[in-house]
Specification:
By secondary structure, the protein is mainly β. The chain has one domain. Helices cover 9% and strands 24% of the residues. The strands form three sheets. The protein has an eight-stranded parallel β-sheet, with no helix packed on it. A three-stranded parallel β-sheet has the order 7-9-11. Strands 1-3 form a two-stranded parallel ribbon. The chain is globular.
Length: 207
Amino acid sequence: MEEGTLFYIKRWQLRGSYDEEDPEHDKGVLEELFSGIELKRLSIIGYRGVKFPICFWNPNSISNIAFIKLEGRKYCQSLPTHGELPSLKTLYIKQLDGIASVHKEFYETNGKFASLESLSFSLTSAWKEWNSIGVGVKDGEVFPKLQELCISDCDQLITGDLPSDLLSLTKLLIVGRTKEAIIESLLLKTQVLHHLELGECKKVLMV
C-alpha cells in the first residue's frame, strides 16, 4: 500500500485464517489494512491472534467506526481499548473464549464510551470478571448514552463492577445461568429501565 494513500470503505468483515501454522496471520492483515482506510462498520469473525494489533489500541486509527463486532475463537486473551472511540455506537462481543477479565484497559485511561448505545457480550465462556478498578473517568460517568446491555450465556461471570451508574439504560437482557449477584449489581446501576429480560433466574430479585 503506497504511503499517503487513503481509502474509504464503509463496511468490512474479516473471517479468520485457518492456517494452524501461523495463528498470528490475521494480526498482520489487520495492521496492513488499517494503515490506509477509514471504516464505519467492522466485523472480525474467527480472529486467531493472541492480542489485537496496535491499531486497535490507538483511537486515532479507527476514530470513525460506529459499529464493531468481534466474534471469536479461544486464542485472543484481551479486549482492545475502545473507550475513547468518539463515534462508536454498537459493540458486539461473541465467543472470545480466551477472555477471562474485562478491566481498565477496556476503557483506556479516561475513556467512557461517550457515544455507545448498545453493548453485548455473548457466549464468552471463560469470562469471570468485569472489573473497573483503576478506571479514572473525568467529566461524567462511563457509558453516558448506553441504552441497551445484553449479557448472554456468560455462565462463569462472577463479578460485575461497573465504574458508574447507567443513567440512560432502558433495556437490560441477561440470558443463561448468570449469577444472581451479577443481576442485582447491574440492576442497582440503572435508573430508567423500561425493558428487563432475565433467563433462568431462580428467584424474584428485590433491589
